[in-house]
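We were asked to recover a plausible sequence for a given structure. The inputs and outputs are reproduced exactly as logged, with field labels preserved.

PROBLEM: sequence recovery
POSITIONS: 159
GIVEN STRUCTURE:
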């Protein structure tokens, strides 16, 4: 996996985050100019988040979670669910939005999904309803860490 923390790199005046994952180099671009302090701070924050996730064995191998900080794709989960509910006008999506809003905490990493599932269970939601909600959340998380559907099934079976 990741043996060293990611580093900032000057790429002809442009700032890049470089990380070496399983013997291959990966880059996150479009951070700004290398000499710009805000771009430097953003790059350092991304490096810290990647390193923390790697140490917790929760690294998003697609790196999409970290790119969202760069490419303007950091749409809040509730905003994404609300937009989908308005677009689709389906009860399932509207219900998922309302449940996630009532929960009121982030749902990005496995521990947060576990907490969300425990909360839904305490609320008395059926396993099939919980599965539908997680599936809907997963469908809008192209801008967030993806919840692995297999993990969701395993989690639901353990309830």
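RECOVERED SEQUENCE:
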């Amino acid at each position: 996996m990741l043996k060293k923390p990611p580093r900032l790199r000057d790429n002809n005046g442009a700032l890049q985050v470089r990380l070496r994952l399983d013997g291959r180099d990966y880059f996150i671009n479009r951070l700004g100019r290398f000499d710009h302090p805000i771009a430097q701070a953003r790059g350092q924050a991304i490096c810290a988040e990647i390193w923390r996730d790697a140490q917790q064995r929760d690294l998003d191998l697609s790196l999409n979670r970290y790119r969202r900080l760069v490419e303007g794709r950091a749409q809040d989960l509730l905003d994404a669910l609300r937009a989908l509910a308005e677009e689709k006008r389906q009860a399932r999506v509207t219900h998922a939005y309302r449940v996630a809003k009532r929960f009121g905490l982030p749902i990005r990493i496995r521990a947060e999904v576990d907490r969300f599932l425990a909360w839904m269970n305490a609320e008395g939601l059926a396993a099939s309803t919980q599965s539908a909600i997680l599936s809907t959340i997963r469908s809008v998380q192209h801008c967030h860490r993806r919840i692995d559907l297999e993990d969701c099934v395993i989690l639901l079976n353990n309830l």
